[in-house]
Amino acid sequence: MKEFIIFFVTGFIFYSLGYHNGSEEQTSLNPSQISANYQNENESSTSKDWVYMQNEDKISGDSEDVYAITSKTTVDFKFPYNGKQSPTLVLVKKNNKPADVIFIIEKGVYACKYNSDLKCSFRVKFGDSKPHTFHAIFSESGKDENLYITNAEKFYNEISKVKSAVMEIVISDQGTFQFDFEWENSSFLSNPS
């Protein structure tokens, strides 16, 4: 059953990214279904494993590796975003090179959504290192739940050295939150697939 859930979640992630029927069109992830399915499998404790899916474009031969992990931090925002949730971090590699880093919340709006340039800044602490500041943008479809980190290569470089990270993000009308992520293995981030 665990294998089926993992397969379903990774398949859904890939489908949501728009990598189906040979399409490379970027679409937004559906965070509520990804997190809900992933957390149902891990209700008593948050998994320390990355969920993995690989796709190969049959025409170009390009490959994409998608990794997702749910935060061990659970939050329950105030109205209108109430309901327990744990954010998801998604990493995408194309042809074994960092392509996308996506931070997803199920419900809520990032405070930076109201900036005139729609750019977000947030801090990430990788393991015991000093905090790093990263920038992110929203998806082209305008989904408020998805943040695309603009310097994916730097993020991959830092995250591949550690087994934990804390991301500090401001949620509009809710406050500043720190989300913990922990994992057992990150060798896939720096080594060829």
Explain how this protein is built.
The protein has helices spanning 2-17, 31-41, 152-159, 187-190; strands spanning 51-56, 63-70, 75-76, 84-85, 88-94, 97-104, 120-126, 132-138, 146-149, 164-171, 175-182. The chain has 193 residues and is α+β, with helices and mostly antiparallel strands. Mean pLDDT is 75; it is low at 1-46. It starts with a helix and ends with a helix. The strands form two sheets. A nine-stranded antiparallel beta sheet has the order 1-2-5-6-9-8-7-10-11, with helices on both faces. A two-stranded antiparallel ribbon has the order 3-4. α1 runs antiparallel to α2. The chain is globular.
Q: What is the count of β-strands? A: 11
Mean pLDDT: 75
Low-pLDDT parts are 1-46
Cα shape: globular
Which percent range fits the helix content?
Answer: 10-25%
User: What structural class is derived from the secondary structure elements?
Assistant: alpha+beta
- Major sheet: arrangement of strands: 1-2-5-6-9-8-7-10-11
**SSE pattern, N- to C-terminal:** HHEEEEEEEEEHEEH
Distance between the termini: 26 Å
Strand content: 25-35%
* Biggest sheet character: 9 strands, antiparallel
Q: Over the alpha carbons, how many angstroms does the gyration radius reach?
A: 16 Å
* Tally of individual helices: 4
Task: Explain the layout of strands and helices.
Elements: H1 2-17, H2 31-41, E1 51-56, E2 63-70, E3 75-76, E4 84-85, E5 88-94, E6 97-104, E7 120-126, E8 132-138, E9 146-149, H3 152-159, E10 164-171, E11 175-182, H4 187-190
Antiparallel strand pairs: 1-2, 2-5, 3-4, 5-6, 6-9, 7-8, 7-10, 8-9, 10-11
Helix pairs in contact: 1-2
